[in-house]
Amino acid sequence: MCMHRLAVLAALLLAACSADSDTPQSPAAEAQPATQNPSPSNGLQPAEITLSKDPNGLDLIDVRGLAKADSPAGHRYELGKWLFFDPRLSASGSMSCSTCHLPDKAWTDGEKLSKKDDGSTNKRHTPTLVNVGYCDKLYWDGRAASLEANVVAAWKGQMSADPLKIGSALAAIPTYKDKFQKAFQFDPNEENIGKALASFVRMIKGENAAYDRYLAGDANAMTQDQKAGHDLFMGKAGCAVCHTPPRMTNLGFHNTGIGMDKSEPDMGRGAHLKDPKWNGFFKTPSLRDVAKTAPYFHDGSAATLEEAVRLMAAGGRDNPTKSPELLDRKLNDGEVKAIVAFLGALTSEVSFTPPTLPQ
């Protein structure tokens, strides 16, 4: 193994250890691995990832393994794909999950703060769904303990959904009714609609990025600027401490100071846990496909990726509970631009075609 590869592996191990340590000074590394995925994609290895699953364990199957259309998992995935793009899941009949999670924007919406179905504005920026199946705590403050819980809460809260009414409407559509019976042996209801949606969302993965091909041995997959940015990311800039490869997140929570200078700051995980030591802590977002997910941070306050990198490289913003691992890394303009170039190498090369909905 060449010295470069050894250096990369050593940096990965150091970053993982930094992310997983749990000390009184930094509660950020609360998340711990739970369930391993037997058939990982996009360079992830079984010992490095977790994959959420429904109580029946039917969703531990890569999307390429859903070729058996008559399997329960296959029916759930297909159902979830329809439901995700179907505006009939909203109270107004005009909003779908895909309204805020667009495939061509890496499953975000490009808005600083999006609108809900009732016209009100969301408090936080729409996060990407890429690799969300590898997360064990969801929402920016980690209040959802499972993907199913997250999906149902977002469906009802964002789309003003009445599950009983919508379930009845879906059951009146023969194609939907038949698919729900094959997937769940039951007509559509709040629980199985949530499970179907989660089955689809779980399979939204970032893969085949230039970075993945580079790690797989293709020395020409990344440009020289991207390689320089990678070395800074893993070393001097300290990015990998929180954005740990290959997931590009440690699944923890950090206080970067973003928004803490407001008159009434969003306390994030501190408000959820009702614990002031967590004030201003938010979930570390994955940097997979980050070049396509502007604007950035939980409040959408950084318009460009370069702006976000500069702020983080400078150690975030000071406040009483700022995470101690955030330091001013003293990067020059060239180093910042190199990191931005590397982050572009995390863009997946995948295609997705929205489904034709049942009528």
Record keyword descriptors for this entry.
disordered N terminus; 33% helix; mainly alpha; Cytochrome Bc1 Complex, Chain D, domain 2; two-stranded antiparallel sheet; globular; 359 residues; 2 domains
Describe the structure in your own words:
With 359 residues, the protein is mostly helical. It folds into two domains: 166 residues, Cytochrome c-like domain (Cytochrome Bc1 Complex, Chain D, domain 2, Orthogonal Bundle); 139 residues, Cytochrome Bc1 Complex, Chain D, domain 2 (Orthogonal Bundle), CATH 1.10.760. It is built from eleven helices and two strands, in the order H-H-H-H-H-H-H-H-E-H-E-H-H. It has a two-stranded antiparallel ribbon with strand order 1-2. Helix 2 packs across helix 6, helix 3 crosses helix 6 and helix 8 crosses helix 11. The longest helix is centred in the N-terminal third of the chain and has 18 residues.
